[in-house]
Amino acid sequence: MISYEYIVTDRQGLHAMNALRLSRAASEYESHITLKSSKGTADCKDVLSLLGLGVRIGECLEFIAEGPDENKACDFLKGFLPANL
Q1: How do the domains of the chain map onto residue ranges?
Q2: What's the first-to-final CA gap in the chain, in angstroms?
Q3: What is the mean pLDDT of residues 18-43?
Q4: Who has the most CB within 10 Å: 16, 17, 27, 77?
């Protein structure tokens, strides 16, 4: 299990387009990727689950990757999040 924390910098927070991009990219990994926020948890492969968190700018998020390709998934997050969220 690997975790990665990120503070949201996008003014719109986790909106539909970046949630869709995140879920599509996360679906390419065999590992289970979970997003934890102060409002709850979401499966990163499920767009509606991500949007349900209502993530806003300035929130600290924790991404947890568990599985055979968790290192690759975490490396992906480290590049994806600053560019999209």
Answers
A1: 2-84
A2: 23
A3: 94
A4: 77
